[in-house]
TrEMBL record:
Protein name from the UniProt record: Alpha-acetolactate decarboxylase
CDD domains documented for this protein: acetolactate_decarboxylase
Gene3D superfamilies (UniProt xref): Hypothetical protein, similar to alpha- acetolactate decarboxylase, domain 2 (3.30.1330.80)
Keyword Lyase carried by entry: yes
Annotated metabolic or biological route of this protein: Polyol metabolism; (R,R)-butane-2,3-diol biosynthesis; (R,R)-butane-2,3-diol from pyruvate: step 2/3
E.C. number(s) listed in UniProt: 4.1.1.5
Amino acid sequence: MAQHSSTCSCAEDVARSFARHAEHNEDMVLYQTSLMSGLIDGVYEGDVTIKELLEHGDFGLGTFNQLDGELIAFDSNVHHLKEDGSAHVARPEQKTPFACMTFFKPTIERDLDEPMTNKDVEALVNELVGSDNLFCAVRIDGDFEYVRTRTVPRQEPPYKPMLQAIAQQPMFEFDDRTGIMVGFRSPEYVQGMNVAGYHIHFITDDRDGGGHVVEYRLKRGRLQMGIISKMFVDLPRTQAFKKAHLTPEDLDKAIKEAEG
């Protein structure tokens, strides 16, 4: 009997240890609704609401139906960055045609104590990740000398392809502001499905503005990163998506022009 009790206790200890390990080492999963190639072809209507999006993550980015500005999410809060450069809390019933979300669990953190450009930060992230084949979620809280952004303008049907829709997109510059950058570094092999390379959105600490990041210079800040090992893609069931041309010959060039 004593031996049986000891074995039971050992098994329980192993189970508890495994549960603690799983709790602190759970894989980060990237949830994505639709494809970037769908946006490029003009698929600007989706059925996933902001409320539903938050069931799949507390951190991410994307856009809103009708290509109405930029979406930024962190700490389970979602903001709508509009074409006039302003920022507003997103409503739960708003919908998105394309977004990427994850539950952010940073495993790498660094204080950035010296001025750095976006290229400097990207090089550091690449070094810390150690592989071009992995997804990475990136958050920077910092003081910025400047941040240059752009925001896609709301479209009306019949929808034009994205490169035509953003031909006159507004640009903004935020000087000497504190804020948060949220985004992902994605491998080259997902170009078209997602955006290869860096895709980053910005919002000011006072939540009055932001947009899709074009370039920046950081004075000082805090970098947090999490490696993503799983990806789930939720494809739309709309007629527009079913009829979209998702593999054009110039897809790579189009995405670089649209998101660069």
